[in-house]
Design brief:
Distance between the termini: 104 Å
CATH topology of the largest domain: Immunoglobulin-like
Helix content: 25-40%
CATH architecture of the largest domain: Sandwich
Shape: elongated
Largest sheet: 7 strands, antiparallel
Structural class: alpha+beta
Number of strands: 13
CATH class of the largest domain: Mainly Beta
Number of domains: 2
Number of helices: 1
Length: about 220
């Protein structure tokens, strides 16, 4: 290894010693330039590696946030923690209830006790089950599910024809100002009208299953006494 101290000489110009010293300085300068170039070349791969790692970390963080956000937005809530209704009351329709429980028809009124934020008309399906668990079949006339306001206004209803399964997956009609995105509240009552006037459905062990859809999963089962 050539040291800079070795290059210092007091020999007069032109002498052999002086020429040797000049060559030594030139060789030493060449070594130094070569070393700097090598060091400069060695810096680039390090910087590239650091940048690659940084980009990978940033992309991983962005992907994580996207996945977590999607999981939160797509997650469903148990209907049983947001929606409460009942108990059901057996009744026979009169002229005053004709819009949602026809005169002399057998019906049940089920008050909505509590409806969490976000539960709308479009979030619920309805199925009437027999005591054995099968879906009730309408035997006479027609059956109907309605949601009625505290002012006895039918806000939504669906009818089931004779011989049809008592299974409602969509509302057939809405009142003005009501839609599938309208929130349900404790000021409303669910009315279940059976499609007959001769055979009473009372005390037969039937149940109404309210099924969550959209943002809600699971169901709430209400006894029909």
């Amino acid at each position: 290894m050539i040291l800079e101290s070795d290059l210092r000489t007091a020999e007069p110009p032109g002498s052999l010693s002086h020429e040797v010293g000049v060559w030594k300085r030139m060789i030493w300068a060449g070594h130094r330039r070569f070393g700097l170039q090598e060091r400069r070349k060695a810096v680039s791969p390090i910087i590239a590696t650091i940048l690659l790692v940084a980009v990978t970390v940033v992309l991983a963080a962005v992907l994580y946030v996207m996945i977590i956000g999607f999981a939160h937005t797509s997650a469903t809530k148990p209907l049983g923690t947001e929606f409460f209704a009942g108990p059901a009351t057996a009744t026979v329709g009169t002229s005053q209830t004709n819009a949602f429980c026809e005169n002399n028809h057998y019906c049940y009124s089920i008050p909505i006790e509590e409806s969490g934020q976000g539960v709308t008309f479009g979030d619920l399906n309805f199925v009437v089950h027999t005591a054995t668990g099968s879906v009730h079949i309408v035997t006479q006339n027609y059956a109907q599910i309605s949601v009625v306001s505290d002012r006895n206004v039918v806000q939504a209803y669906s009818k089931i024809d004779k011989n049809g399964a008592f299974d409602v997956t969509a509302w057939q009609s809405f009142s003005p100002g009501t839609s599938g995105t309208t929130p349900l509240t404790s000021l409303q009552t669910i009315w279940v009208q059976f499609g007959n006037t001769k055979i009473s459905p009372f005390d037969q062990g039937r149940t109404l299953e309210v099924i969550g859809t959209g943002s809600f999963a699971g169901s709430v089962v209400i006894d029909l006494p």
